[in-house]
Every structure is written in structure tokens, then in C-alpha cells.
Amino acid sequence: MSKWYEAKAPHEDIVISSRIRLARNLSDFPFESRMTDEQRRQLSEKVKQALSHVTVSGETLQFTEMDSLEEIKRYAMVERHEVSKEFIKDPTHRLLGYSKDESVSIMVNEEDHLRIQVMASGLNLTSAYQQCNKIDDVLDSELDYAFNERLGYLTTCPTNLGTGLRASVMVHLPALEKSGLMNQLTATVNKLGLTIRGTYGEGSKVLGSIYQISNQITLGITEKDAIQNLESIVLQVIESEKRARESLLAEKRRLEDVVFRSLGVLRYARLLSSREFFEEISNVRLGVSLGLIHDVEISRINRMMALTGSASICEREGRELSPEDRDFVRANTVRTYIS
Amino acid sequence: MSKWYEAKAPHEDIVISSRIRLARNLSDFPFESRMTDEQRRQLSEKVKQALSHVTVSGETLQFTEMDSLEEIKRYAMVERHEVSKEFIKDPTHRLLGYSKDESVSIMVNEEDHLRIQVMASGLNLTSAYQQCNKIDDVLDSELDYAFNERLGYLTTCPTNLGTGLRASVMVHLPALEKSGLMNQLTATVNKLGLTIRGTYGEGSKVLGSIYQISNQITLGITEKDAIQNLESIVLQVIESEKRARESLLAEKRRLEDVVFRSLGVLRYARLLSSREFFEEISNVRLGVSLGLIHDVEISRINRMMALTGSASICEREGRELSPEDRDFVRANTVRTYIS
């Protein structure tokens, strides 16, 4: 079975992935912050039972108990956006359910009792939401959600109250960044009630010109409106990035020099830091998107970005590595991927 | 017929080329600085007549009158070390005789009436001197050299008085340079009565870690001793460079990273300045010499160095180019040469 990130996708030249996440809590348990370990164990069992009714592409979910994993593996999962940072802080009774194609993942005992997450490649919010909604319906019929007629779904943090929905899109904006237009864009996006931030969410650094744009408002708005609002603004961001790319193309030789040099580094370096990898792969992605580089696939680039994090590298090597050893393995991994 | 620089040569991992030059003047003409144009014309004719008796590998020389060439072509010849800078300042009545394999070149009406030059690849001073001496003997029997029993050959500049011999070797010393040992080496070499300087002789910048080591003393020393002295010191420099290379190899991954990145730049860049080209090709040459890079030939590297100068590029394009256009053509030229 192919993975979600291998699919050709709408707007994949600029949009890396779309994500829908629903926060849900059960009325017969206190919120996470007030739960005992025993309650967490009970919740985990109960939810696992309910999740056995969920199918994705005709197949039931697989499960991983976070405390059965080595620490390095858990860090690698965060790096690949498979689980949240919050989720691995204390792995006790934390359960992950996921589909074979990795598009669906459900965290049990995260900040909320349930975090249902669906990923899709490119700009694909609607289909991701439909998938998420279907799973939510199945669980709703099996579990007793904490729901208030006036407020909507009750959540640990009030910022999720209402729909419990967070829709987000990972966008690759190298041309806007190179043209110094990101500050202006960030201000505009914020004014429109959305958030734009770095690759690993709140407070994180921007790596490889990849930004995450997500909705903020969950109260007094329908899921459909929230998603449409995000999507229409992302479409405008895509247009801005396209215009900025056209400006860069006006000096085609210089742009080609930049993107091909980056391809050269990825194909020839023997030591590659994570930071440099992201800078170079960002240029290569731009080059591929603009049709300057022909022999590299966008999906391969996206996958490389996920696989070359320090934790993922240590996970594959099966041990902690020194920074230079990591840079060495990263360079080797990238070379085999991109040559 | 293959060119001199295409031959496999002794110590080619470190020594690029050896050069022997003899300065000669005719007793029946004043020194260059005091000659009239008419005298220069007469000298040129007379010498051309004498040069018709010279053969190299069984073939007679070819001739170029410098004032028949476009300026750009003359600059390109200087860049490729085919003639001296001095020689093209005023091309009037300046005549160049050269062999098909380009190893022998004879400048008429340079600073001295005659400058006989022989090039060889690698460390090959003795064979170059033998060739030069043979030509000198032929000319000596045809022309009346200005010679003094006590002083030796008379020359325009007293620094050439005596043997009129300048022997020089182009060496590639990237490891000594990277290890910060060049100042020390320069001091030692100078103490031993030799000169070490940049790629284009006196006062020129060092490009690509290439240095020219040459004898200084021409008075009170035989040709043989001068050459042996230079050769034995060059052999010591070679040993120092080899030791420095071994130290660099102790951190093999880092060295591989440096040399392969440079190979990547040369194979992928779309704009390449002369300065950067020399930096990168120097690393690649080091990588090839150390057996780290396998698919590039040393002779091809040497040739690339000669062909990618700004004047040579303009010469091939047949017109003056802007700096960016030159960088563009240089990158294209290098890519086809090294891929």
C-alpha cells in the first residue's frame, strides 16, 4: 500500500501537505490534566475498543503504545510530524492508532482524550476533513463525547473549544522569502484570523522556507466555514508565491545557478547538517517546481525532508550518533535518495 | 599530434609543469630598449630565418606575428602562459615561433632579442633543458650571440646575466596552504636562493593554490647546477606537501566533503567566477591526486585551468563579454569538461 505522501496532489508545487485535526474528550473522564494514571489506562482501553470499528481504505487501524517504544523512536515520530511533541513528553498510557497508509493517526491521552488527525498531500483540506469526519462519526456512536449545545465540543484548552478543529497547510514559500515579502504576508494572514509559523509549529524556526498556515478560530464558526476560509487564503498565498517565482525567473541564469548548485551539494556533500540540508532541498524543490530541474520527483523531496531529521537518522542507525556522524549519515542518505 | 600538457608526467599529483627559458641577444643589434622599429623588423626577419633550421619532433616551427592578432587573442595567450605579458604590450615586430605540440615557443623582440622557452608536464626540468639547449645550439650556429667570456650571455636586465636561464616549476600546494604552512615554506625557499610566487609570476595573486618556484641566480653558476638546485628543492617541497596531505587525510570524511562539494559545484554551477573556479578546481585536483575522486583526469584538470581564463573565454566566443556572461560561459565550459 502506498503512503499518503507519495500521491500526486493539487498545488504540490507549493503546498506540501494538508492536515485536519479534531480534539475530542469523553464526558465520563476528567480532562487530561486531572486524570490519574489508572484513569488514563482505562481511557486508553476504552478508546482502543471503539477504534476497532474504524476502517481506512477497508482496513482496520494499527496500534502503538508509546511507552513500548525507545526514546529515539519517539523523537523520530515527532520529527516526521506523526505525533505531537506534547504526546511523547510522558509516554505512559499514550496510545497511537494509525492507518497503513499513514494518512490517519489518532492520539489517545494527548492534551485532549482524543486527537484525530488526517494528512493529505498537496492542498486537500476537504477530502482530509471528510475522512476525519467519518472517523469522528464512528467514534461518536461508540463513545460519549463531552459536548455542550451552546459551546460545542469541550476541550482542555479553550482555544480548541467549539469545533475542536485545527486545519493546517504546510506551504513552501522560497520565492516570497527570497524576495523579503514574508513579514508582510505574515501580517496579512494574521489579520485574517489565521496563524503562520515555522515547520514544527509554534515558536519553531523556519526550515527550508516551509511555513505552516492554520485556522485559529474554533468557536462560533462551522467546520466547513473554517476550512473554506483557510483554503481561500492559502490559494491567495499560492498566487503570491507564484508571482514572486516569476520575478525570480526574470533572472533565469542566476536562479538556475542557485538551484543547480543546491542540487550539486545534495548529490556531492559527504557531511550535511540539518540546517544546510533544508536550505539546499528548498532550492531544489523550487527548481523542480519551476521545471528547471527535471530528474527529481517532488514526492521524493517531501520524503527526504521527513527522513533526514537527526532523530530519524539515529533511529535508522539504531543508536545515538555524534553531530558529525549524523551529518555523515544524512549526506549518504540524501545522496542515495537524490542521485 | 598530442600537446605537451596531455602527457602523463613524473610527480603530476603535485607538479603541474616545468619550464626552461633562455634569454639571448645578438651582438649586431642594440638591446631592445634602444632599438628602432626598423631594427626590430630586421631582427625579426633575421631570427625567423635562423629559426627555420630548428625542428621539434622532426617538424619545423610555426610562426605568428603578434601584430596580426586581435587584442583579445593576445590576452588569451598570456593567460595560457604561451607568451609573456611584456610581449603583448606593444605587438609591433614581435614574432612568436612555436612547435606543433606547443612545448617550444620562442619570443623575438621581447625584453631580450630572443626568449627560448620549453614547457614540459610534471617535474621534467632536465628534458626541458635538453630540448632548449638543442634549439639554442642551432641558433648559436646561425646567429652571433652577445656573449662575454667572463660574464656569459649578455642580457637587457642584469638579473639574467650569465646563463640567461630561468627554470621554473608550477606546483599545486593545497595541503600546505590549508595547513597554514605557506609562509614558512616561502621563507625557506627564498633563503635557498629561489623565488616562490603566484600563478602569473611576480606580484600576482595565488589562484587555486598554484605556486611558481624558480631559480634566481644566473651569474657564477652553471645551467646544470641551477637546474639541479631547483629540482632538489622542488622535491623537498613535494615531500612537505605529501606530508601535509596525509595530515588532511587523517580526517578523511571532512576532506572528502570538501573535495566532492567542489566537484559538485563544478558539475552543477551555472555561473562561475574565475576566482571560485580556481578554488574549486584546486580541491578537485587534490581529491584526484589522493585517489578520492576517480572519474576525473589530472591532465583534463590542467587543461581546464588553462582554458577558463576570462580572455580565453572571450577569445572562443569571439567577442568581449560582460562579467556575468563570462561566468556563464565559464560554467558551461567547465561542466562539459568535467562531467
UniProtKB/TrEMBL annotation, chains A, B:
Keywords: Allosteric enzyme, ATP-binding, Kinase, Nucleotide-binding, Transferase. Appears to be allosterically activated by the binding of pArg-containing polypeptides to the pArg-binding pocket localized in the C-terminal domain of McsB. Its EC number is 2.7.14.1. One of its GO terms (cellular component) is extracellular space. The keyword Kinase applies. It comes from the Bacteria. One of its GO terms (molecular function) is ATP binding. ATP binds at residues 17-21, 81, 115, 166-170, 197-202. It holds the Pfam family ATP-gua_Ptrans. NCBIfam families: PRK01059.1-4 (NF002194). This is Protein-arginine kinase. The lineage of its organism: Bacteria, Bacillati, Bacillota, Clostridia, Eubacteriales. The gene is mcsB.
